[in-house]
Write a structure and sequence with these properties.
The protein has one domain. The longest helix is centred in the C-terminal third of the chain and has 13 residues. The chain is elongated and about 55 Å long. Strand 14 and strand 15 form a beta hairpin. By secondary structure, it is of the alpha+beta class. The relative contact order is 0.25. The strands form 4 sheets. Strands 2, 3, 8, 9, 11, 14 and 15 form a 7-stranded mixed β-sheet that branches. The chain has a 4-stranded antiparallel β-sheet with strand order 5-6-13-10.
Length: 203
């Protein structure tokens, strides 16, 4: 099957996208001031939440922090005329509270200004304070075909050592504190720079 120049570039380096999504889930600062009091029936967590890429000291006010991705476990899911999708396992760690995540949504995700789509994560899972947990199913990422071409052209013309990742993640769940489960949605705003994974893949 002919996938085109953009798809070929993406397939050669699709594991690099693990770095992007790891940062989407595992790094950033949340600011809920611009949000309503409730989203889908969940009370919005109003305090700023720092989510770390690696385990470390946690803020007791934060419902959760997050962890890491193994690039070697990224799996290509589908190639079509509309674009490419792949699956990525994700591990959460250093959780300061016990509870349950009901679902996770992603909004306005971009890499170097190029939009990417991350499917809503609908698999529920429970977690315990201080324990690592592997999400019961992988996260699915989709890159439209025209965006693949755009990304490939930009990388060939003006490759940068850093990529800028921006967007917002919403974590919906029930977090236990003082013996009570609180129904909350935690917004995580992302605006970070990561090492260009394509350059790393060429080495």
């Amino acid at each position: 099957m002919r996938t085109g120049t953009g798809s070929f570039w993406f397939l050669c380096h699709y594991r690099a996208a693990a770095v992007v999504v790891a940062c989407l889930i595992a790094a950033g600062i949340a600011h809920a001031q611009e949000l309503p009091d409730r989203i889908r029936g969940y009370k919005v967590h109003k305090q700023a939440v720092t989510v770390r890429e690696t385990a470390g000291p946690t803020d007791a006010a934060s419902p959760m922090v997050a962890s890491r991705v193994d690039p070697d476990k990224i799996a290509l899911k589908d190639i079509s005329l509309t674009g490419v999708s792949f699956e990525m396992p994700l591990e959460l760690s250093a959780l300061p509270h016990s509870g349950r995540v009901d679902f996770i949504t992603f909004s306005e995700m971009t890499v170097n200004g190029i939009p990417v789509a991350v499917d809503e994560f609908r698999t529920e899972f429970r977690f315990r304070k201080g324990e690592k947990v592997l999400l019961p199913s992988p996260v699915t990422i989709f890159v439209p075909a025209h965006r693949l071409v755009q990304a490939a052209w930009r990388e060939m013309r003006d490759s940068q050592p850093k990529w800028r990742v921006r967007g917002r993640v919403f974590v919906f769940g029930r977090f236990k504190r003082y013996g009570i489960h609180h129904k909350r949605v935690v917004p995580v705003d992302i605006d970070i720079n990561i090492d260009n994974p394509v350059i790393r893949a060429r080495k």
